[in-house]
Specification:
The chain contains ten helices and five strands; from the N terminus they run βαβαααααβαβααβα. It has about 210 residues and is α/β, with parallel strands linked by helices. A five-stranded parallel beta sheet has the order 2-3-1-4-5, sandwiched between helices. Helix 2 packs across helix 3, helix 2 packs across helix 5 and helix 3 packs parallel to helix 6. The N and C termini lie close together (about 10 Å). About 45% of the residues are buried.
Length: about 210
């Protein structure tokens, strides 16, 4: 079974995806980490995140086995990832990896921004997870604080709005809800409620 989870930053899609994978005994892939890894490689080389040549080179040489998830989840890397992910050649380089991951038995839960529309258009279940920008900013700021990082909520909200704009309007695989995806708004849900709602969606919509 393949479950595609899409949605904007801090919507809760990562947490929901991990819990769904555990519930159904599937593998999980946070596809955003792939783009964050590309972005970090570009930044570490002293280049700007919109440097197409550097980003393509980083994407083609990517090795997920060497990911440092904590380092990849910094605000600076997240911002840069939004730029590299808009480069068509970068997305093309990572498509095969994501599709191979999804196709490997017993299946997988993939979360990102173009899983249901581009990576796995024939997924058994598609869920689009969202939440109000203010709620997402609050969540992300709490994450930063818990990790000992700076995260002024107003600044985080501004960054989220900018990223939403870029991700939704980019020419390469823009963020959008697939026609056959089920909307899950987590604005007023805690983690347990969101996960329960996601499981209910899978049970109602999975191909039998």
């Amino acid at each position: 079974m393949i479950i595609a989870i899409d949605g904007p930053a801090a919507s809760g899609k990562g947490t929901v995806s991990k819990r769904l994978a555990a519930h159904y005994g599937l593998r999980h892939l946070d596809t955003g980490l792939l783009y964050r890894a590309v972005a970090k490689t570009v930044l570490d080389s002293g280049k700007k995140p919109d440097d197409t040549e550097a980003a393509i080179a980083a994407a083609t040489a990517l090795d997920p086995a060497n990911f440092d998830e904590a380092a990849l989840k910094s605000a600076v890397v997240g911002e840069a990832a939004s730029y590299v992910s808009a480069i068509p050649e970068v997305r093309a380089a990572l498509v095969a990896y994501q599709r191979d991951f999804a196709a490997t038995a017993p299946g997988a839960v993939l979360d990102g921004r173009d899983i249901g529309t581009v990576i796995c258009p024939d997924a058994d279940v598609k869920i689009f997870v969202t939440a109000a920008p203010e709620v997402r900013a609050h969540r992300r700021a709490k994450e930063y604080a818990a990790a000992g990082k700076d995260g002024d909520e107003a600044t985080v909200l501004a960054d989220i709005r900018k990223r939403d704009e870029r991700d939704s309007n980019r020419s390469a695989s823009p963020l959008k809800q697939a026609d056959d995806a089920v909307l899950l708004d987590t604005t007023n849900l805690n983690v347990e409620q969101a996960v329960a709602a996601a499981i209910a969606i899978v049970e109602r919509n999975k191909k039998r």
